[in-house]
Amino acid sequence: MAESSSSGVGHELRRVATPPMQSKGGARHCESDSLVDSALVRAHIYASVFWLLYLIVGGGLLVALKFTWPDFLSHTPALGWGRLRYVHTQTVAYGWFINVFFAATYYMVPKLTNVRLASGRAAWFCFFYYNTCIVIGTIALLSGQNLGVEWMEYPSYVNIMIIPAFAVLAYNFFLAYARSRERNLYVSSWYLMAFVAWALLNWIMGGLVPAYVAPGIAGAAIGGLFIHDLVGLIVTPVATATIYYLLPVLTRRPIYSHSLSLLGFWSLAFFYPLAGVHHYYYSPIPMWAQYIAQGTSVMLLFTVYTVVYNVYKTMQGRWTEVADNIPLRWLLAGVVFYLMVCTQGPLQSLLLEQPLIHFSDWVIGHSHMALLGFGSFVMMAFIHFAWPRIGGRALNRTLCEWSFWLTFVGSTWMFIDLWIGGLMEGYYWGYGYPWYVSIVALKGVWMIRTLSGVVVLAGFILIAVNLWRSRPLSGAAGTPLAQAA
After folding, report:
1. C-beta neighbour count of 133 within 10 angstroms
2. Which pLDDT tens digit goes with each residue over 282-316?
């Protein structure tokens, strides 16, 4: 039986979940809600999609091409593999994800608290200031400046510049909850509060500690924690909050078990921070730390299964809606990728498996499934859900279908290709073949990776075109629309 956290959750879901209504004349009208700063949410969505396209064209595709043609654009230092790889990773994390996370937070928090942002001006300043920091950081990386900490490559001055942006988010966020009269917190609020707190703490840990406080082996261990916590304590909380927010809206029923969702939240909070050392197995880092990382990594199976089981039970009797409901399709595809990547992750963290896959393309496939598969698909569900509501703009149904299937097929193709390549590398290295033998053997794998990236890029371009060309919802009944519910 579906379980509610309180009597207030049903009221809260009715308040936040009302979809655009169909009038007698056939026209659809956008929900009127003065709580959400629609222009601010739209601005962050536009920025996130811009950075998403830039990271694929300016980073991902060029980096992938250099695996097959190493001399491609090699005479220009700014377009060398190393600098482009930094641009690719930084842009996916801080250009695409953080911008769309700002958008989701600015949309969901006023709905969950029934309170407007404390300072719209501060939020708008944060939008321009933060994206200016990303531009400065990208230029710095292309010019050869970097901190040397994986996934925290921006120079120190850029990392320090970004901290006030998270502080403004925290101010707007926690003040909204302090002013709210809602007596009980829905589970999405728990995850969003954790995101805001962990994002600021992780940024300080990754940007300052490895480089200045604890260099060497200790810094490498902390860097491993940061790499893992970036996914588990920044991407995962917002994506999971979005799942729990959208699923009741799109299915018009409460989540199966609120208690189970909170168990999943607390298991994430307790187990995930200690798992990052598994990035440095068989290194000079003490073995006791590696054993702890192995144990906590396996415990994360419980975390993901609470989410997936909740989704499965909530969806019972509603599976046929996936065919017509575009946001629900993106959401469930992201949940499937979440199940796969978080089953794969704990199992591949076992010390016995590491000699085969460590440092191989298998790990690259795993990380792409986490960020491109799980995180990006869930946030695309949010964009397709929110866009008609924040601007009264209809998305073209045909473009929605093409963009989903191109992105889904291209992404799946890429993951499988990288896993095959990783197993091939592990075989060659394990049997003592010279390193260049594996390079020659994987040329075909890397070519397929590039082609799959082109397919994903085509899907994202269609999303951008669809958002840009979206039309007012007050048109004729036949206006193609990405149905949200």
Report:
1. 21
2. 888 888 888 998 999 999 999 999 999 999 999 99
